[in-house]
Every structure is written in C-alpha cells, then in structure tokens.
Amino acid sequence: MIEQDPTTAVELHVNGHRHRLRLEPRRSLLDTLRIDLGLTGTKQVCNMGNCGGCTVLLNDRPVYSCLMLAVECEGQPILTIEGLNENGTLHPLQQAFIEHDALQCGFCTPGQIMAACGLLARTPHPSAAEVVEGMSGNLCRCGAYRGIVQAVLAVSAEG
Amino acid sequence: MPKLIKSEINVEGRITEEYAVVDGVELAAWGENEELAIVGQPAPRIDGAAKTTGEARFSYDVQLPGMLYAKVLRSPHPNARVLRVDASRAEQLAGVVVVLTHETAPDIKVREGKLPLLPADARFAGELVAAVAATDPDIAADALALIDVEYETLPFITDFTIALADSAPKVRPHGNVANQPSVIERGDLQAGLAAADVRIELTVRTPTAVHNALETHGCVAAWEGDQLTMYESSQHVYGVRTFAAKKLGLPVSKVRAIGTYMGGGFGAKFPGQPYSMVAATLAKRSRRPVHLMYDREGENLESGYRGASLQHVKMGAKRDGTLTAIELDGLTECGSYANWVVSLGGPYGMMYMCPNVKLTTTGVHTNIGPFQAFRAPGFVEGMVGLEQAMDLLAEKLGMDPLELRRRNLATRDQSEDKPFSSFPVEECYRRGAEAIGWNKRTPTGQQYSTERFRRGTGMASQIWWGGGGPPAYAEVQLNGDGTATVLTGAQDLGTGARTIFAQVAAEELGLELGSVGVTIGDTYAGPFGPASGGSVTTGSMTPAVRSAANDLRIQLCSIVSQLEDVPEDELEVRGGTVYRRDTPVGTVRSLMRKLGDVMLIGKGSRGPNPNDVSVVTSGAQFAEVEVDTVTGRVRVIKIVAAHDSGRIVNPQTFTSQIQGGIIQGLGLALTEQRVIDHAAGQILNPNLEWYKLPTVADIPEIVNLLIDIPDTKANSLGAKGAGEPGIIPTAAAIANAVANALGVRILELPITPARVLEALETIA
C-alpha cells in the first residue's frame, strides 16, 4: 500500500528569489532553508528558540527560523545572511563585524548579523543600551559580545 | 639533512618526550627590539568575510550528493542493561536506510580504548543505544521513535560528592575512583603546617560547567571505495585521521580529515568520541555519505563538561606572610568514563613559593556522561580555591591580599625544579592594580557602597603552560603571481590562528599581508599540525610557519640571483619587492611572472623546546563588582586583565581571546551550572534555555592590558598561547570581589542571588 503523500505545496520568497517546494507541514523554516534550499549560512544551534543562531528576517523582522514552520512563511519576504551581500560587496554590518572583530569561531555570526539588521531596520540609531537589548537574544559562546555591540553602533553612526 | 630530535612537551601539565624531525637551521628568536612590520600589528581576521557572509562551511553545513542524515537513540536511564532492541518497525519506515544497534554494530572499541561502540550497558542517561541513517532528518527522528528497547534498570549514583561511599552503587566494575588520583607532593606538609604562625582552612565548591560550543559535536563521513573522508568539527584534524585509521584498520594514507571551519571547541572536541565511528559505520553500510551532528540535548548529555569540584584546603604562613604549607584534598567529577583526571592542584603547586605541599585530586565516577577537558581544566577550578584561600590568609594576617601574593610569588617552577623562561607577573600586578585603582580598595570594600548596593574589588593570579613544541610542520608556496600560500594541517578553532600564520609568513617573507593566503584544516592539503589544546597552537605552529617562510625566502633570493644575475647575499625582500642593497630589483610578482608556472616551496618545522627552563604563561585579573543586597544579584562592573603570552602576534585577536576567556569565567562565577536531579539520575537543564550562558547584557567593562614581552627562550617567535590564560583567574577574582563587598565569603560557585541572600543572613 502506498502511503498518502504527507507534503504540501509551498511558495517561499527568499532573498528576492521565488521557490516552489513540496514540504511536510511540520518542516521548520530553518530546515527548509538549510536542507531544501541549501542555504547553510543560517545555523542550527539549539533548535528550540534559545540562542538566536538561526535568526533570519521575515517581513523585515528578526525571527528564530527554528521556531517557524515553512508553511507559515508562504509568500512573505524572507532575508537570510546569503541575501545581504548579493551584489558581491559586503554589507556594512558584515564589514563592521570584521573590523571590530565581532566574531571568533563564526558560528553565531550570521544570526548576530541578521538580528542586528532587524534592529537597525526598526531603530536606525539605537543607543548602546538599545543595542544590548536588541542583541540579547543571540548567544555567542566565544564571547565576542563587546565587538558585536561596537560593530552595530558603528554602522548606526554611519547610516 | 633532517635531524631526529627529542623534546619535552608540556600540554596542560602532562609532560611527554616527543620525537620530531627537524629540517634546516633553527632560527634565532626575534628579539625584544626587533623591527617587525606585520607581526605585532592588529590585523582583522583573514577569514572574516567567509564567516560574516555565512559562506564559511562548517562540518554541520557539509552537504554531499546522496547524503543521509543520522540521528541517535539515547538511553533514558542513568544505569541500565539493554536486554533487547527491536528495530524492525524503524527499518520498514520509508526513507530509512540503515539502523545500527549494539547487536549490529561493528567491533570497534571506543571509550577508554576498550568499550564497545554501542554498549549493552548504558552507564548514563544519554548513552548511545542505536543510530539511524535516513534520507531526511525528520524521517530519522521518526525512525528513532519506532525502535523498541527493553532495559533492565540498575541502581545509579549521580552525585560525585557521595559516590565514593562504600554503599554507593558502582558505576564501573572497578569502583568509583576514576583512573589514577593526581598527587603533587614536596617537602613535609605536617612540619610546614606546624611551623606556621597562622593557619586557615576552607572548603570550596565549583559547579559542572558545560562547554556548549555553538556547533555541536559531529561529522560527515564519506567513503569513496576504500578511502574515507571525515568532515569533523574537531580540535585536531590530524588526530581525526589517526583515530579513524586505527579504529577502522585503514592505512593512514586512505583517510582524509577536513576541519576547515569549526564552531568552537573549548577542549571538548578532541578526536576519539564514539559518534565519528558511528557515522563512518553508517556510511560504510549505506554506501552513502552520512551527516551525524548531535542536537543540543545530546551535546549536553554526552559531549563533555568541566567536572564539578570539591576542594578542602589548608594553608599555613609565617607572620610576615611567607607560606609554609598548602594542603589540598580535592574531588573532581568525571562521569562514567575517564582517560585521565584533571589536576586541581596545578595552580596550588605552581603559583606561589611553598616548600611543603600535598595536593591530591581524586576523580570520581558517576552515572553521568564523561567529562572532557574544558579550557584550562583543573586550573580554573583550582584557582577558585587557591585564590580564596590566599585572600582569607591575607585577612587573617591583616595584610593587603596583593602584597601577600607579591611576597610569595613563585621564583621558579617548583615541580620541574627549573627557572621560568619568562614570568612577568609582577608587571601584570603593577599595571592591573593601577588600572583597577587597587590603592582605593579597603578590607571592607565599602567606599563606593550604599546601604543597598555594596561594591567590592578582588583579584586573582594566573599561571598556565602554553609554550607548545614539536612536532609541528608547515609549508609555504610562492605562486607565479607573487602571492604565497601557507599550508598546514593545523586548525583554527576561532582563535585567529589562520590570521597569525599569514602575519608570520608575510613578515618573514617580506610580503604584504594581503598577498598571503592560508590553507589549513585538511590532512590532504597540509603537513602535520598539533592538536589545538593546552594553548599550544601559537607556540607550536608560528615557529614552523616562520621556518617554512624563511626557507622559501632563501630559495627566492637564490632564484632571483640566478635570474637577474645579481649576488644572492646582497638581496633582501621587503614589502613585496626584492632589493639589492637599497635598489629595487623588481617586485616579487614581476620576478615570479617571468618564471611561468614555477612554484617555490618552503618547508618548515618547529624546533625543540629549551631544556633548562620551564615555559609558562602568567598574569592576573582584577574585578570590581556591585552586589544588590535586596535581590542578591551580583553585577560585575569591570574586569582588568593583564596576561603574559610572550610576544603578541595580533593584538586584535589576542584581545578577543582574552575577553572570550573572561566571559566564560564570568559565566562560571555567576550563572553557569548543570543541574541534576540526583533522585532520578537526570540532567534537568540540557539546553541553552536553562543552562545559563552569559549574554551580551551580562558583559562588564573589560580592560585588556597588553603586556607583550617576547619570551625569547621559548621559541623563534617569542610567542605563547592565549586561549586558556584569560579564563583562569576570572571566577576567583569575582569571588574575592564579592567577599570584599559583602564581608562574607560565598564558597560555592556560581554566586547566585539565592546564595548571596543566604550568606547575608549569616551575618545579619
């Protein structure tokens, strides 16, 4: 007996590109990005919304992609780390993270940068306290936090 | 001609004599006043763009054609015999390709080199029972739920403080003492205690701290015929190769290990853990690549931690502060398996002069997953005990705690009975004390305090190894366009190793930093590099890179001399240009372009360590804290760090390393602790929600003083490691600052609000 196909058709808009997929409704946005679309820049760290490692922007707002189902995101603009430098030059946040050494191993970095992107989208000129508040959902085990705050403030000062 | 040498190597206090083959001339160390253009200058990490774009490919990110995703089934019981495993329902699930159980697993011995890959005796909740490889991770997870296991549950013990009692269930057939206790002894302890004018005694406890590197443990295993490639998140790429070859009976030449990028290790990711052989077996049986990365819970249950410690300390001193005796009776939590036992006594035996010591650490088995080395294992915990004892002694003597330390500072390595190659702790004390404003500290720490918010200052010292040694090899290639490529099988854990290799090669070759690329983390691409542990990578690898670059520069000058008909001994290379005396002969690029596809290859190796001195890193940290006496919350206001790691190759990544250590130390002091329900034998917080890592909101002002004194006896760079020194004194300094603020000492870490309020009640 052939089991019923558990998948459903979903259209996702990722980094300005349209993708038509067949997914199980339980598929997380994170697994969809990484496994079904091969966008492995978004990292899997805790898979339960504790660490921010999988942060992407959905409608310009940062979300933990491990807590979203792909089917919930149908048709809405999704921006991942791969979409930040699509024209080949580094985004100012990427540049600032490098200059301020806001990373060590780099595993949390895509999530940090996307969280920062979301923060600056809603608060273009945050205070240091607002940066700390805005970035406190993203863990970094190497302890690059001081550089992260400096990098976000530097970009805010430029723009 | 290659020379065979033997050299003493000290990794985390374990001293071995290693053979190494050294080729070429041993370079004289760059002196203190050497004019260097690139080494010593801050340089942004050269893999910054790869990491900030998400394009750096970690083991977790490897995706190969036909790749399967594996997941593991873990024992829910802390001690159980697996009576029966029925995987038939799982095997029938669409998409499942292989299921591995203890009955079908190959005969590969892993834990302590002697226990089965999937044991029939599960000794902790979380031990591997079965593994599934399927076409999709969701299917693999479904399959796990379809495996039926019948267990016989057995008595267990998870509290290491009572596991040595006769009545405790035995974790292992030999009992609950793990491996061999560590004992450091000299002089006559009892005579030393008797000779003391002042004696103190205290009991200190430190919690279980979990590494929780953000990339979990795991690998992707892929076979091509009889050749295996392991993409493993590891601190030793060459060790992955050796382990896989040995366990699978393969010639070393048939194993390729790759670890180009890895998401943090902190000591837990040395090769030898079972998952790599599970992945290789699943890949072999399925004839497809297999991706096996642990989930966060598995990481917390199985992949290691800094064992909790219990330290009974006695210390005696003369009226003038001179130490006469130190006794440590320590226990360290090891979990179910132990290849070795950390020494809590290390700092007690090394930091200060003391003729009479007996320092014992006994490792204790429990029904919890095995511990692993964690960033300065033993020394972080030991410093918490030693430095609180020193403060208590100072209090009893009515002496300034820093003054007491100055009077007792080690003048030589007492266990090795050798002078230190360099030990500028006094300089670290002086500059650190100035930066924190130590002279404003009072014994009651009250000067900035209010009734509710009490401020205090404390400090602690640091000692550790980190000089590295052979064997370590590198090559540097000069390409046809005048760029150079450094090749070595060493790895970059996020420390900035890649960047300092480029700096050293560029400096020695006379090229611009931007002209040097670095290829590391692949055993098919570069020669042997050591494990990145014990803070050895800088001290082991940078001399090898310099030696290779020097070999290449000599070849370049010889070739240019022949090409341009100029005397070789008048040539030098600076800033990417070859000069004859001060006249440019041509840029390296233009000269190499004349040669077409010629490639010059320099080879280098790390020379032997000096025999007559002991190479250590040292330093001190100072902490200022504010304690809210209403809520019990401790806020660290400022940490001043002064560490000697010899010559600082890259001040920017050095600073990040030290800050990273401080932040992990801050976690240990205030928030991090594994919580176990001892009645159920279960870890209650195997995740990042309830295991409390420091966040960006917890970070104090950090002042990182650059001591930067080249240790010219250590190696040809004069550079030593910075990975571990930063974490060693932090928790101890914070504990001393809290005691200074409150006038009562909290002897158990982490210093939670509940413990603060409890301590305040004792003096109310």
Description:
The complex is a heterodimer of chains A (159) and B (764). Chain A has helices at 29-36, 92-99, 109-122, 128-135, 145-158, and strands spanning 8-14, 17-23, 55-58, 61-64, 77-79. Chain A has 159 residues and is α+β, with helices and mostly antiparallel strands. In chain A, helix 2 (92-99) packs across helix 5 (145-158). Chain B is α+β, with helices and mostly antiparallel strands and 764 residues long. Helices cover 25% and strands 26% of the residues of chain B. Chain B contains 17 helices and 30 strands. A seven-stranded mixed β-sheet of chain B has the order 5-7-3-14-11-12-13. In chain B, strands 9-17-16-15-10 form a five-stranded mixed β-sheet. In chain B, strand 12, helix 5 (237-248) and strand 13 form a beta-alpha-beta unit. In chain B, helix 9 runs parallel beside helix 16 (730-742), helix 12 runs parallel beside helix 13 (537-564) and helix 15 crosses helix 16. Chain B is globular and about 85 Å long. The N and C termini of chain B lie far apart (75 Å). The chains are: A alpha+beta (159), B alpha+beta (764). Chains A and B meet through helix 1, helix 2, helix 3, helix 4 and helix 5 of A and helix 1 and helix 15 of B.
How would you summarize this macromolecular structure in one to three sentences?
Chain A is of the alpha+beta class. Chain A is built from 5 helices and 5 strands.
Q: Let me know the largest β-sheet of chain B.
A: 7 strands, mixed
Straight-line distance between termini of chain A: 61 Å
- Given helix and strand content, the structural type of chain B is alpha+beta
**Cα end-to-end separation of chain B:** 75 Å
Describe the structure using short key phrases.
heterodimer, A: 159 residues, alpha+beta, 5 strands, 33% helix, B: 764 residues, 5-stranded mixed beta sheet, 30 strands, 25% helix, 26% strand, globular
List the topology elements.
The complex is a heterodimer of chains A (159) and B (764).
Chain A: E1 8-14, E2 17-23, H1 29-36, E3 55-58, E4 61-64, E5 77-79, H2 92-99, H3 109-122, H4 128-135, H5 145-158
Chain B: E1 3-11, E2 14-22, H1 48-52, E3 68-74, E4 80-86, H2 88-92, E5 96-101, E6 121-122, E7 128-134, H3 137-145, E8 148-153, E9 177-186, H4 189-194, E10 198-206, E11 218-224, E12 227-232, H5 237-248, E13 255-258, H6 274-286, E14 290-293, H7 296-302, E15 309-317, E16 323-333, H8 346-350, E17 357-364, H9 379-397, H10 401-408, H11 425-436, E18 453-464, E19 473-478, E20 484-488, H12 497-509, E21 516-520, H13 537-564, E22 571-574, E23 577-580, E24 583-587, H14 588-593, E25 600-605, E26 617-628, E27 634-644, H15 651-670, E28 676-677, E29 682-683, E30 701-706, H16 730-742, H17 753-763
Parallel strand pairs in B: 3-14, 12-13, 16-17, 20-21, 27-30
Antiparallel strand pairs in B: 1-2, 3-7, 4-6, 4-8, 5-7, 9-17, 10-15, 11-12, 11-14, 15-16, 18-26, 19-20, 19-25, 22-23, 23-24, 26-27, 28-29
